[in-house]
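Hello,

Our lab assistant flagged a job as stuck in the queue for most of the afternoon. It eventually completed. Since we weren't sure the result was trustworthy after the delay, we are filing this so someone can double-check. Below is the sequence as submitted and the structure that was eventually returned. Let us know if re-running is recommended.
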Amino acid sequence: MVTSSHEAMHRIFQKDPGIFTRTFRTLRIPFPETVAVGVLTADLTEIEPLERRLDTLLRMETAEGRAYLLAVESQGRKDPAKHSSWTYYLAHLNAKYGIDPVLLVVCQDEQTALWASRPIRIGPPEWPSLTVRPMVLGPHNVPVVTDPATAARDVPLATFSAITHRKDPNAPAILEALATALKTLDEETAVVFGELTELGLGTGPAAQIWRDLMAVDLSFFRSETSQRLRAEGRAAGRAEAVLMVLERRGVAVSQEIGARVTACTDTDTIDRWLTRAITAATAEDLFTGD
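-- returned structure --
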């Protein structure tokens, strides 16, 4: 509510524009001399809707019980208009959610990354009222990951490497390493990271290389070969279970029978053997009726 004290405060500045400068010069803050003051509306309500949209907004929970907002923006080129947008985003998010926001900008070339990483200072140079410090991922600080084993150990990092280094001469090797690493994941997760990489690459030579790789490599999950390999993996696990049950029950298993069980790749057959292993008096009883 506006009180008489508020009214007096702003009217002082209207009547004597120089008082602001003189006051703060006594505090050794050298604002330039003020020669005129214009009164603007104090109502900051926006009547007309203005669309402002982040690329991604996440609520992050820490192990210590704290929470913060992670606002993610993808920036392909220098755009001075983004400075005011980013400042608005952080102030609005803090006011709306009451949680500390962090701005992460992902860039695909070093010049844009260095531009985006500079602090954004709002206010006169003598006393910046607001400073925005974006966190930036770009070619200047994301490592080049061309080794498939390294990519498999940290697929998210390998994904960022592919996106931020899409214009790098090593881009084909980075993408091939990531494509190989995706094969170590389950199908659903691999598809998610594959699509995120495609979105991050946008258009251009690297994007086409990635699409070509995915046309071949993601078919791995649906190919007859991969289905056979997964079936063999399931069969091997069940075969070990058969032999383990016999061992735990004290039933002797010859080398020949052990080899026959582990060599079988038919899961239905192994399931029958597993059922029989629970009551079999001898290892040969596994095959009764086959």
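-- support follow-up --
The delay was a queue issue, not a problem with the job. The result is valid. The chain is about 50% helix and 10% strand. Confidence is low (pLDDT under 50) at residues 1-10.
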